Every structure is written in C-alpha cells, then in structure tokens.
Amino acid sequence: MSQQINELELQNLRHMIGAHDTCIKKLETYAQQCQDPQLKQMLQADANDAKANKQKLMSFLQ
Questions:
Q1: pTM score, two decimals?
Q2: How is the chain split into domains, by residue range?
C-alpha cells in the first residue's frame, strides 16, 4: 500500500537524507585518516549505519 507524502514531509526527508550523506562522507574520511584500528573500525561501522539509514529514508521516496 503506497501513501503519498506532503510537501513538508518531502522537504524533511530531503534534509535528513542530505544530513546522513554528510555524516557518511565525514565518517569515511575520518576512518581513512585514523591510525587507531579500533577507532577506525568504529568510524567505518558508524558510516555503514548511516548508509543503511539513508537507504531506509530514501525508500520513502519510492
């Protein structure tokens, strides 16, 4: 069952998707520059979580 979203909800989704995208890029950059293996792994895991959340948010646009 598909529901339509209103303009405000669409704007909010776009904002949240953009924010997740920014987080992904920053976390991946931090992970690449990190020397500590544990911290590097944690940053990459957080980036992966942000990617999953972004995909979940994008599913509402379909």
A1: 0.86
A2: 7-56
| The residue to which tokens 């994008």 are assigned | 58
3-37 burial: b if 16+ Cβ within 10 Å, else e: eeeeeeeeeeeeeebeebeebbeebbebbeeeeee
DSSP 7-31: HHHHHHHHHHHHHHHHHHHHHHHHH
Closest CA to 54 of 15, 12, 28, 21: 21
- Encode pLDDT of 5-50 as tens digits: 899 999 999 999 999 999 999 999 999 999 999 999 999 999 999 9
Three-state DSSP state, 1:
coil
